[in-house]
Amino acid sequence: MKPNITIRLYQDWLDTVKEIFRGSGQPLSEELSDHEVAVAYYSQTASSDEEAQQLSLANAQRLREMEQILLTNFEALILPDIRKRTGYEGDQFTFRWIYQQGEHVIEEYSEYRIPL
């Protein structure tokens, strides 16, 4: 059976940013675009709006590239490693971006973790 893979690292990152703002007591408007959410995050530390824009775009590209790397290398490298390290034998895989003492990608069903 062919693996069923769900991966949305950039969206996971955006959801985390929204949660950070909610937790700080300054929730972001639900009407903001993904790009506006990312720029709001980077505006907290960037020295200019232009830098926040650049950091936002670079992060989106980085996370989308990671998604592609995971998909491209899944069957040849990642799946065998998941099976070996976790013993997970299922065909359902959901990769998520998390921040937990640093950035990681986890696969939810097997609890496989890739530090970034």
Could you describe the 3D structure shown?
- Strand 2 and strand 3 form a beta hairpin.
- The protein is 54% helix and 18% strand.
- The chain is of the alpha+beta class.
- A four-stranded mixed sheet has the order 1-2-3-4.
- The two termini are 29 Å apart.
- It is built from three helices and four strands, in the order E-H-H-H-E-E-E.
What low-confidence regions span 5 or more consecutive residues with pLDDT below 50? none
Helix content bin: 40-55%
Radius of gyration: 16 Å
Shape assignment: elongated
Mean pLDDT: 96
The main β sheet shows up as: 4 strands, mixed
- Can you count the beta strands? 4
Structural category is alpha+beta
**Strand line-up of the largest beta sheet:** 1-2-3-4
Number of helices: 3
Order of SSEs, N→C? EHHHEEE
> Roughly how many Å apart are the termini?
29 Å
User: How much of the sequence is in beta strands?
Assistant: 15-25%
